[in-house]
Design goal:
Blueprint: H1 2-13, E1 19-23, H2 28-39, E2 43-47, H3 51-61, E3 67-69, H4 77-88, E4 96-99, H5 114-134, H6 136-142, E5 149-154, H7 168-188, E6 193-200, H8 227-238, E7 249-252, H9 256-259
Parallel strand pairs: 1-2, 1-4, 2-3, 4-5, 5-6, 6-7
């Protein structure tokens, strides 16, 4: 029986031999997901704007498997195209694309600047769309009916409920990610590509450094997210176990949305 259980787990959850891209993979949730992939035998490319940070993270993650640094600033469509060309020069297929790179900007409503709005939308929503578009041929090359290629977009619980913060562009862009995920899931299913989203709650990171322990009261599970929580959700959405799941926005938040 134990042998049968092991075979079932391998058949449903093994990612061995797959290739993935994780944007924003040098730190935060991106690095948590990238580490999970690397430890599962995935050839993992991480993308970050700061080349030094990207290279250092890839060296550290590469101790447990294969992690490749491919620095890029994905803030413009031209830059997204250059990154896609650089990746195509190295690989002829892509099993998993994790669109995690993100930006935030907080300011009072009366003073919220256009440059902040544009920066957040360019990174959080526009680059996600165009990177998926540019990499579509490689996703199609990896896809099969039994084991689709996967696109995993990072939304946020701020895009599902009122965050009660002055991060207007961030919450609006993340709501856009959730809706775009459903739209792309419908369109790309014909190519055997599943598109899902993870909507994280509070995970310790540079972006959430201002959060306080008092905010734990809003999380029924009573703690922030952990690296295993982030990796586990991404591994599930990338594995055979989720082959019939597409268009889902998964709150990864310890119950915060349910309690909102």
């Amino acid at each position: 029986m134990a042998g049968q259980d092991a075979n079932l787990l391998k058949r449903l959850y093994s990612l061995e031999g797959k290739t993935a891209i994780v944007t924003g993979g040098s730190r935060g949730i991106g690095a948590m997901i990238a580490r999970g992939f690397v430890e599962c035998g995935v050839r993992t490319y991480i993308v970050a704007r700061n080349g030094g940070d990207c290279d250092a993270a890839a060296r550290e993650l590469g101790r447990d498997g294969t992690c490749v640094s491919l620095p890029a600033d994905l803030g413009t469509v031209d830059a997204v195209g250059r990154f896609a060309d650089a990746f195509r020069a190295r690989e002829d297929r892509l099993d998993i694309l994790v669109n995690n790179a993100g930006a935030a900007w907080g300011a009072p409503f009366e003073d919220y600047p256009e440059k902040g709005w544009d920066k957040v939308f360019d990174i959080n929503l526009k680059s996600l769309f165009f990177l998926t578009q540019k990499l579509l041929p490689l996703l199609k090359a990896a896809a099969t009916a039994d084991d689709p290629a996967r696109v995993i977009n990072l939304s946020s619980i701020n895009g599902l409920t009122n965050p009660h913060m002055n991060n207007y562009a961030y919450s609006a862009s993340k709501a856009g990610v959730a809706h775009l995920t459903r739209h792309l899931a419908s369109d790309l299913a014909a190519h055997d590509i599943n598109v899902n989203a993870i909507a994280p709650g509070w995970f310790p990171s540079r972006m959430t450094a201002h959060f306080t322990d008092g905010m734990l009261k809003a999380i029924p599970r009573g703690r922030p997210g952990s690296p295993d929580d982030a990796a586990g959700a991404a591994i599930f959405l990338s594995s055979r176990a989720s082959a019939w799941i597409t268009g889902v926005v998964l709150p990864l938040d310890g119950g915060a949305v349910a309690a909102a």
